[in-house]
């Protein structure tokens, strides 16, 4: 089909197959050539006759199309990533977008689409600015012949520009409007290597590097601030542009959070990339436990089995076999199965143990008072002590009447209650992480009709104590304190005022959470962060930052949340019966988020520790210049070097023409349309063609007959 002008064209519909027309044409040309060689008369009329015959066989017609013009589609991609919040970039972006909308809305044959990129952080997104992905998704439903082009409002830090930008040439000219300023500089802190695991009490080494951008135009040194698990910070000077090793000690089992920050550089865009953090998971080499049983009893084996069930526990267990009533002069070392190394355990190697347990111990003159004083001092210096009381605790032979009495939270009243009772959590116990959630443990058997089944099996003996200090998390007979937890100096103490926990382990009346309670007690005594009763935590769940504050008392105060770009938000928390108040908000930026509640601080990392989005926050045309060149677009600064600037002029250009110049950018005018109707009118009616052929034949015959 040949286009004559818009809406009109000439079409041909041959009456014979093409191969036959070609054959007839060849024969006709051969005949005409023969006549020309013989100089026959009437050649001109015969040529005219054959031309008329050919026109008749081709059946030409004039075609008129009813066309409906289609609007071109232009796309504006707005960068809303973290780097766009630096300085006045966001203000310039908003102003340029408003101006683009106002100007392009006045173009009658243009549809404008505005899309955003860089707002999502879930699943690793938000770590990069993926403006090209946003552009291709925005025009996925638009035919390429209708695309007028695209305008990117960004600082130039786009991370999904294809290696072969020519592949995007069919999208039309892609222009870039840069929102930043010329000659920007920035300082950043890079975590080169951060160890994931370390042995508790040992050191690990991380590697960091401070960089001033552009290179060679910053300072020679910087001040690095290190803070571990909310402890007092320390500052060290480090050289700029060099890898610096940092040695830190793994203080406890579980996550150890290391927060690093560096002071502002000579030219600073944002402090968001001046800090980072990493987590070292503390792994205990072996958990060393010293268990001293004051006498053989039914629950002694339970303690041993519970502790030996954990392969990570190194248990040293001694049972004092000599009864109180025995008065002969047989030396203790001759009664023992093995010699009790008192001095080695309680003087030389006491600090090597992570936990010391005294089970139904009574004074027997086996351990001198000086060694018991060593245990008290061991606790004050950060050790862990668990005392499981027996009947002797209510007598003059009680441990309370030794130097250990200064650290034990429960003072004996001198009485022992021997009656059935079910251990019950206190209000504080329902909120304390050691006992929270233990209610109903083992309640799998259905209750009898009209009866209420107790959640745990019963105990039958309790030593009456009066708590002088600490927190009572479980009560027993007559609502008397049963389990008390306390902090003494740098260490911790737990006291169980009964020797009947073994009934739970044996499954009596359904048993109870003996193993779980002992596990939590041991880990709380050894200061596991997950079991802190006053704690603040933050983590990322999907695209939300979740904050959890644990406290023994309900707390309705909000917490302060600081984003990587230093935007501060007050987040209210909702309290729950388990002692944890929770709240969440959308994590809109990649990087390090800080949550503060008074003196407590929690950190959470959204995305990668060193995301590309924060790696270099300077405005640059370098990433998008190849794309603009390949598609016929241009790169423009909204602010020039003198501080002036504005939006370049907008023009419509024909396909194939230049779409960018000094101070202007062009959007392609494609002129696409849809056909709503077609009318066909033959140019040569058949009867006219036949008459013309007959006339030409007659004229040719007359010419030849002369």
Automatic annotation (TrEMBL):
The keyword Nucleus does not apply. Residues 555-575 are annotated as: Disordered. Keywords: Membrane, Transmembrane, Transmembrane helix. The chain crosses the membrane at residues 16-36, 43-63, 683-701. The keyword Membrane applies. It comes from Nitrospirillum amazonense. This is Glutamine amidotransferase. It comes from the Bacteria. InterPro entries: Class_I_gatase-like.
